[in-house]
Amino acid sequence: MNQRQIWLTLATLALFAAVPPLTVVFDQPFYMDVVARIMILAIAAVSLDLILGYGGMVSFGHAAYMGVGAYAVGILSYYGIDNGFLQIPLAMGASALIGLIFGAMSLRTSGVYFIMITLAFAQMLYFLAVSLEEFGGDDGMSAMRSEFAGLLDLNDPLQFYYLIFVCLALILLFLHRLVLSRFGMVIRASRGNERRMQALGFPTYRYKLAAFTIAATLCGLSGALFANLNEFVSPDAMQWTHSGEIMIMVIMGGMGTLIGPVLGAAAFLLLEENLPEWMELIMTNAGEHWAIVMGPILIAIVLFGRGGIHALFARRGGGSHG
Amino acid sequence: MSKHKLAQTIGLAAGLAAGLTFAATASMAETVKVGFITTLSGPAGIIGKPMKNAFELGLDHIGGRLGGMDTEIIYGDDKRKPDVAKQLVNKMIKRDRVHFVSGIIWSNLLMAVHGTVTRSNTFLISSNAGPSPVAGKKCSKDFFNVAFQNDMMPEGMGKYMTEKKIDNVYIMAPNYQAGKDMLKGFKRMFNGKIVGEVYTKLGQKDYQAEISALRAAKPTAVFIFLPGGMGINFVKQYAQAGLSSQIPLYSAYTVDAISLPALKDAAVGTFGVQHWSPDLGNSVNRRFVADYRKKYGKTPPFYAAQAYDTVMFLDTAIRNAGGISDRAKLRAAMRAGDFPTTRGTFKFNNNHFPVQNIYLREAVKEADGSYVTKTRGVILSAHGDAYAKSCGMKW
Amino acid sequence: MDPLLLLEQAFNGLQFGVMLFLIAAGLTLVFGIMDLVNLAHGALVMIGAYLATTLVAWTDSFILGMILALPATFAVGALVEIVALRTLYRRDHLDQVLATFGLILFFNEVVRIIWGPISLYSGLPDYLSGHVEIIPGAPYPVFRLLIIAVGLAVAAVIYFIVAHTRLGMLIRAGASNNEMVGALGVNIKTLFTFVFALGAVFAGLAGMMLGPLTSVEPGMGEPLLILAFVVIIIGGIGSIRGAFIAAIIVGMSDTMGRVLLPVLLRAFVSDAAADTAGPALASMLIYILMAAILVVRPRGLFPARTG
User: Fold this and answer.
1) Of B131, B183, B187, B153, which Cα lies nearest the Cα of B351?
2) How far apart are CA B352 and CA B135, in angstroms?
3) For a tag on chain B, would you pick the N or C end, based on fewer CB atoms within 10 A?
């Protein structure tokens, strides 16, 4: 990661940190929720980027781990266990376990087969959640906010906001260290040429599986926070379109960078929310057809926007090689 | 309304410029603000659009002023996603400071926003979704449903088929929460024998395998709950399998003004059950249906009638309470449920869900070639839902 | 379970499989020869259904409408290839997934604007709405038999093209090494456009035949798209034979799973538990099947690519 990227990351985090006081000054507490949601999905996107951008593993089922994390919180809350010290580790543990199992099987394949098998596993979990009658099935279930007795009160929007902020900052720091470590080097190198790495004696399968599991674990945390934000859990979070959206956030922001997916999550969610309103300004009732503009925007990003938003700020080249 | 909005924007801008934000808040208190959330974009816009249309028609009919007060409506498109709905609700409550959140088509979306709205001292008015938890243990003094509780229709069908001494019934629904609730509701009031109970995949396209199995079970009648595209698929294929002339088809939430244009003859002669029908003879409904057809060129579906009723409900309650400042008084006025409804009769249960008539409807082809549902009698009169007794609310 | 009913269900499975093959054929060709992951393939199914429904209504003839719809979907396919997809061939799969995801959003919305959100009415002429009693006591819809016949005929035609024509030779060569095809002096651009449009016609044909059976609505292609992907992954990308066999496997196991799993489970657990677990397992079945096959054979049953 070059100097520019570090400054960009710090600037973004400083901006996030400044949001709550700003919302107080302008008396618009609502925007704290907006940014909280952005940060949670940023965690999911940045975790996907570890395997997608750095590792070259195109997982099309990443939303599944968000779902697992969210359901872990929801199900524990259903049985009256609201203790966050228990919920959060269990949510991450469950995602790690499932990531490990799915990863172990998926990583035997590569290329398009990998894209599709990850999608298939996510679909399995989606249909499983839909048929879990005990936990609300398709209707989903409400979840109480996690309790961190004596430490945090998540029902206080400010404390909740900064909890998410700290999680995001720590994850960025962790991933920053990780991609620069020997482990990260192997992951990045096997993206370029896996056979050479194998010839050099690196068991790339194990390295990739470890990266896959880490990504799933972090995404599980984002799911657990998501459940807390919404106070609600439903299979909707595991739909394949949601996996696609997380992927779009990564690409939009710039994959193979750490701050890129964060910017991408912000851009995507703000666009999704405001595009209909902007279209409404041009023509009445045009807002409901927002997809006709969103579709071409995605295509344009792919065709012309190499490097994503990140490339607008940081000079290209530093990108995918840290 | 746009004039008000303009005046307000100018007022707000002036207020902000002067640094007097509290002045703007004070002027807002005199306006009734209502959030209306439906699904406008994507395939499910097929339901949300008629609701929004009917809501606007209702506002036209009362001159755009709920209870005679200045009114501002904030529309929201939930894109059928629970987290988007949740964020819309947060925006409406915290930024727009609405007094009522209304609309909401889907049970899962309602479940996602229920707690947020009711805890924030804002009234939540469902214009469609009626899942069982919020009708029972989780009922709330600030939540009203002006549509129905899910189980009411299948209960009606169960009762009707029991009365008609129809035995050996085959029942089918998609494998998700509402599907299971529906069949449970049917069985609650059906005393005959059930020869098959099948749960199909959500969003299924091809039902030929189920139809083969169904035929082999030799039922006297079939009852289905397959909303939206699934119903269109099934009813078409059922007709093509040649079964519609052999085994009568009964349904809930399947054959309506939205699916009929796609089904046409395939649905003719099938029986459905609903709390409303476009041909109900009361004067409110006649005006609603005629004006809706005139303005939008289509027959309104029941979702639209509910959205129209939502306007009338708010209008009447605010008028009778003399404003919105006294919440207890407003709640009491809402509980009276004495608004001019398209359904003819309406009353609230202790859980704030409707007590209403359930009608038998038959799909018919009109002389002019159009396809509509016709009322074929009242199956249950003044029917309340089964969950009301587990709601602890008394008033 | 009654053996005759089981036979009828096998027939249903075959018919579903044949339908899946029509969608998967184009997908696997495009995948194999151009190395393009096209998520918008489901949109072509939808466009085929809408064009056919509209043309049938216009011409007031089922046959004529269907026949006219074929060149129309070919034209749409060619246009999409030239305008949007051509630039994507050299991109990695990720870019392709995203851009074609964008195309799905676009097409669904275009259809919604042109034809409206309400599903279209598409019926059958009288001569196709009859029944034949192939299996005693189970009259089978003529139209569904027609689907099986058309599907098998198309499979035979594709097999002939791929195995015995110059075009087929190029397709086979392209599936294993598309630089070589260029080296042969073939105009790759035209070949690609033609193959893509041909795939669009097969998908459109599936849509046309689905029209009278299912709801013609925006987004109708997506559930089928995922199934078609499962098919070509199981079959091995680029392999027509693999796509055909996998389509029948998926069609059969989905149909049989839906019908048999709840019954089977009732033998082991309580009825209520079987009613819950049966449909859940049935809806996961083909994904489990696909995962199992990929774990054993990471490149599908009939891998076309060697590299």
Assistant:
1) B131
2) 8
3) C
Interface size between B and C, measured as CB pairs under 8 A: 120
Facing A231 at nearest CB: one of B91, B115, B131: B115
Amino acid at A8: L
Of C121, C123, C139, the CB nearest to B242: C139
At residue C178, the pLDDT reads 61
Contact B212 C15 (CB under 8 A): no
3-state secondary structure of B272: strand
Q: How far apart are CA C148 and CA B289, in angstroms?
A: 45
CA dist B270 and B110 (Å) reads 31
Given an 8 Å threshold on Cβ–Cβ distance, is C255 in contact with B209? yes
Q: B339: closest CA among B307, B320, B312?
A: B312
Tell me the CA distances in angstroms from B375 to A215, B160, C94, C223, C257, one per residue in order.
57, 14, 54, 36, 40
Q: Which strand (E) or helix (H) includes residue C156?
A: helix C142-164
CB contact under 8 A, A247 and C97: yes
Residue C129 with chain B: CB contacts under 8 Å: 240
Write down the ipTM of this complex: 0.83
Fold of B152-274+358-383: Rossmann fold (3.40.50)
- Domains identified in chain A and CATH numbers: 3-313 (1.10.3470)
| Chain A environment of C33 (Cβ under 8 Å) | none
Give the domain ranges of chain C: 12-218
Rounded-to-integer distance, Cα C175 and Cα C131, Å: 42
Check if the beta carbon of residue B280 is closer than 8 Å to that of residue B344: yes
CA angle A12, A13, A19 (to 5 degrees): 95
Q: pLDDT tens across A275-288, in order? A: 888 888 888 778 88
Contacts of A116 in chain C (CB under 8 A): 229-230, 233, 290
CATH annotation of B2-148+281-348: 3.40.50.2300
Contact between residue B275 and residue B354 where contact means Cβ atoms under 8 Å apart: yes
- To test the contact with chain C by mutation, choose from B49, B208, B246 the residue with the greatest count of C C-beta atoms within 10 A, namely B208
| Candidate from A111, A123, A255 with C-beta closest to C93 | A111
**What is the rounded distance in angstroms from the CA atom of residue B219 to the CA atom of residue B233?**
21
Every domain of chain B and the residues it spans: 2-148+281-348, 152-274+358-383
Tokens of B246: 């052999």
Q: Going residue by residue through chain C (307 aa), what tens digit of pLDDT does each one get?
A: 678 888 889 989 999 999 999 999 989 888 877 888 899 999 999 999 999 999 999 999 999 999 999 999 999 999 999 988 888 888 888 888 888 989 998 999 999 899 988 788 888 888 888 888 877 777 888 999 999 999 999 999 988 888 888 888 877 776 666 666 666 667 778 888 998 999 999 999 999 999 888 888 888 888 888 889 999 999 998 888 899 999 999 999 999 998 888 888 888 888 777 777 788 888 889 988 988 898 888 888 988 654 3
* Cβ of residue C210 closer than 8 Å to a chain B Cβ: yes
Helices C240-266, B208-217: axis angle to 10 degrees equals: 40
Instruction: Please calculate the CA angle B257-B261-B262 and round it to the nearest 5 degrees.
Output: 120
Distances (CA, A) of C45 to B222, B240, C27, C48: 31, 22, 11, 5
The alpha carbon dihedral of B110, B113, B114, B117 has a sign of negative
